[in-house]
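Record 1 of the preview.
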Amino acid sequence: MNPAPGSTGADTGHAVVLGSGISGLCAARVLADFYTRVTVVERDVFPEDGATRRGVPQGAHVHSLTSRGASTLEEFFPGIVAELAADGATVVNALTELDIVFFGSRLLRVPLGEVLQASRPFLEDRLRARVGAVPHIGFRPGMEAVAPVTRNATTVSGVRLARPGPAGSAEVLEADLVVDAMGRAGRGAAWLASLGYEKPAEDRLHVGVGYASRRYRIAPGAAGGDKGVLIGATPARPRGLVLTRQEHDTWVLSQYGFGKANHPPHAPEEFHRFAAELLPAALRDTLRHAEPLTEVAAFAYPASVRRNFHRLRRLPDGLVSIGDAVCSLNPIYGAGMTVAALEAAALRDCLAAGTDGLPRRFYRAAAKASYLSWLFSNLADRSLPYVPGTRPFLTGVLGQAFQATMRAAAVDPAVAAGVWNAVSLSGSPARLAGPRVMASVLRHGARRPRRPHRS
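->
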């Protein structure tokens, strides 16, 4: 079956999306242009009060959407950025309204586009409303995907669902395409093995990051003119934080550390002391007088994982994985939602060429969509001596290279732009190795960094 690009005719079948996170919602919107009916299956029951869903344990922590991610969402949901801003989300000019310190150096303030800052529930609620407004998209909350259903040895023809709880509540949902957007646990990869196919090989980097976050109300103007501050980890100090303004002038403070000894504490007073070690004096005082709106929420992220579906020789028709199920990135770099949108765009482009060989074509496109983000985050993580699995010599070389680059980014607008574009996926990290940037790094970053030590 080959749906025509953009068609929703009666002969184009049924697509099922498993998971209603950012990747699942984007995928559902894309599929609606190619299939008569789209069903989004979600294990959680959607909260009515904007609370964090159980299936999104990272939902209480800082989230932002880069200009690349926002422009991609606009392709799926025209006017969504203006709608989010009108509803209260914070639009930030990067880097003029963000105070960013990478590897111990403060990036030069240069105008580089916009960032959308909002909580994960706020963003999901509005995307879900947009998806639900499409007449032929339906939701099945409170249902769990148990196993794929096959028509023959080479084709997945649906999924078996069960309502969590009493036995005997299973049902089969037939589909022409099943999209696994169930997250980094990789259930779709395990399903391949259950169907007699090879599981994709994994690239895994243990990072051992622990998060803790809390939301606050801060008096207007009390935080100065900035709408966010980001202080990254360094080889000498494997801790960092992000404090950003979100919807309705609320703020979220997310702190993190590499290795259990550096994970931020959960008790409020200790949580504040952890922040006081990193924040400038003015912001320490601002936080001391802020009104807490939530308790401290914790989240652990053990490893970044990329599943190499694109290298498999055999794949069944009718089943693809997307989002964190394909590539799960260290969240401290803030690229997850942007990569999810880019992978959905890749799925759209592949469907526009028909469904013949769709899994193989899509996985190749998804690998390209996530590659730059995977490369940048892995190089940055491997520059820290607290991330195991990298030879000390390479860790030292990478650490010195990042520190020298950031020292140049503190005084050179071209280098600052290159760094931000690499982080936000607006440009390739390879541009940081170009002659213009390298000359600046050699000129401004020649100062030898202090020898790393454990804090």
